[in-house]
Amino acid sequence: MPRHPAATAIGVISGTSVDGIDVAALRSDGESLVEPGEGRTYPYEPGLRAALLSLAAQPERVLRDPLAALEQAVTGAHAAAVERFLAETGLPREEVAVVGLHGQTVLHRPEARFTRQLVFGDAAAARLGLPVVDRFRDADVAAGGQGAPLVPLYHRALVAGLGEAGPLAVLNLGGVGNVTYLDGETVIAFDTGPANAMLDDFLFRRTGRSFDEGGRLARSGRADAGIVARFLGNPFFGRPVPKSLDRNAFAATLDWVAGLSDADGAATLAACTVEAQAAALRHLPRPPRRWLVAGGGRHNAVLMDGLRQRLGVPVEAVEAVGWNGDFLEAQCFGFLALRSLRGLPLSLPSTTGVPAPMPGGRHHPVPGRPLPG
């Protein structure tokens, strides 16, 4: 029996690809009961997106500057996305117990016990008239954890509903890839390496397009095996897990493909992404018998075909089991917001390397709206 009654939460995140603000609803007890609801994506205004992408390449500025104006703009964009979501879906505001507002990550350096997500949770709560939880990663990082990935406990709840024997892997191909390995009581998670970020940045520099739709450009080119081998020589792949990455940790790879054609550059970066995910196998107790893939990368046929060839087992988009791969992360932060309010852990030693199961999140209540307990 669940220890807590179910409540409706909204989760909000913009990932490392900075391609839009994902908003999703779910009903959950924060433990075993998960009933996903609707989801929507709202694009950033182009100027704000450009400013965020530029900032991601200026780590020293993130460390030095308060960034108040930019954080205010991000907060406004995320609050407006929630308002649009409520209006478009017809979800009554009074039914929403909490909004889990992850914010926009602009720098993640857990080795220095630093992570920065732009969002003013208090301002968002005041504007929305709804309780908000933010700063999901801070306590984990402050305690010596990686602060990422934070989706594994949500993956665990979803996989429990499938009733399938393990081991299973849930792979998220966002800007950075991360995997959750589930086998009975065992939960292991870590960032696998670059996913869409390198390819997206390459395409934008070369063509002005934000991504390689369906992997068509990569399909037309030939991967440079030497560059792929050099990429796999990065010490990150041999580091013990759990581990996490900043979006731009592999930015030098873009310099290595500078002399290639658009097609060959895209093919090479796609091959690097596939090999980064396959390298995760060395850190898993047993090879997963099935991989379920979420995130934008699941729409790239070159990535998916490459993963099937390299892993040798079924590799399927999460829609194959009835999940919505566009909104798993947004749903997750609604789920984690409920866990945060109830004092439950958001991360485990086996998912982030934190010393003990770690609660987290900062709470922003509003008058007249009791928090679920």
From TrEMBL:
EC number, as in UniProt: 2.7.1.170
Gene3D superfamilies in UniProt: 3.30.420.40
Catalysed reaction, written as an equation: 1,6-anhydro-N-acetyl-beta-muramate + ATP + H2O = N-acetyl-D-muramate 6-phosphate + ADP + H(+)
- Pathway per the UniProt entry: Amino-sugar metabolism; 1,6-anhydro-N-acetylmuramate degradation; Cell wall biogenesis; peptidoglycan recycling
The family note in this entry says:
Belongs to the anhydro-N-acetylmuramic acid kinase family.
What is its biological role?
A: Catalyzes the specific phosphorylation of 1,6-anhydro-N-acetylmuramic acid (anhMurNAc) with the simultaneous cleavage of the 1,6-anhydro ring, generating MurNAc-6-P. Is required for the utilization of anhMurNAc either imported from the medium or derived from its own cell wall murein, and thus plays a role in cell wall recycling.
Q: What is this protein called?
A: Anhydro-N-acetylmuramic acid kinase
